[in-house]
Amino acid sequence: MRGGHPVTEAHDFPAVTAPRTRTVRDLDAAVATCRACPRLVAWREEIARVKRGAFREWEYWARPVPGFGPPDAKLAIIGLAPAAHGGNRTGRIFTGDPSGDALYAALYDIALASQPTAAHRDDGMELYAVRITVPVHCAPPGNRPTTTERDTCRPWLAQELELLRPTLRAIVVLGAFAWQALLPVLADAGWQVPRPRPAFGHGAEVRVRDAGGEREVYLIGGYHPSRRNMSTRTLTPAMLRDVLRRGAQVAGLPARPERKGPRS
Predict the structure, then answer these.
(1) Which of these, 127, 109, 117, lies nearest to 90 by C-alpha position?
(2) Residue 1 pLDDT grade (very low, low, confident, very high; cuts 50, 70, 90)
(3) What letters, b where the CB count within 10 A reaches 16 and e where it falls short, cover 55-82?
(4) How far apart are CA 34 and CA 13, in angstroms?
(5) Quick check: 4 pLDDT over 80?
């Protein structure tokens, strides 16, 4: 603490600060100031200094990237971390990189997003009853956060889900890393996570109930729309739409027809 305020460079900055936030907007603002993980801070800022040739004219965001979407979302989507030249450049999660291209196109195809492409954080994109977030808010070298970095960042995800709790009905979890990061967060928050803990898989579904058994949230696993998964057809646009549509269905979102001409 410095002058009664948490120090952004301190290892416990997320743990101290996240529970103090009372709105999603306040949480997002606090996330963007975090400098708790030295390796990630150095990497995100080095990427912003060196840049990629195609983005030479950009002023990179080069900070932690908050979640995106309304604070009363019924469906959450959890990925891995910002891309070095995607969210780390644009300042919005899954924006400006191939993974985001696939995700937002799929959300648009099933009428959960206002447009099919996400180029920058002021492009007018809106999500309908959906919020996208990540367990690690800084771009990691090689897209591989350490377990320490994941655990340091965990309070942000825990508080975000707590703030969404009144409306949240389903979570689509993109990738094994996000699945493994999410389950302890839910357990610590009092949700009754099955034992042994359920394994990740594309299309896997798990229902978790609160301590009183009165409310439940559906977890739906899906492969991450990484460039590699999409190029090898491990994940196709149709497969991605299917898990997102299932998430919308169990979240109780209004049924909407798929838009014409969806990507295969």
Answers:
(1) 117
(2) low
(3) eeeeebbbbbbbbbbebebbbbbbbbbb
(4) 7
(5) no
Q: Which of 127, 135, 133, 137 is nearest to 69 (CA)?
A: 127
pLDDT exceeds 80 at position 119? yes
Number of domains in the chain: 1
CATH number at residue 238: 3.40.470.10
Phi-psi region of 74 (alpha: psi -120 to 50; beta: other; left: phi over 0): alpha
The reply to whether 260 falls in a domain is no
Distance between CA 217 and CA 220 in Å, rounded?
A: 10
How many C-alpha atoms does 216 have within 13 Å on its Cβ side? 12
d(CA 42, CA 255): 45
Q: Is residue 3 part of a domain?
A: no
| Helix or strand (DSSP H, E) at 240 | helix 237-250
Mean pLDDT in residue range 211-218: 86
pTM: 0.94
Nearest to 13 by CA among 149, 125, 129: 149
Mean pLDDT over each residue of the chain, to the nearest integer: 94
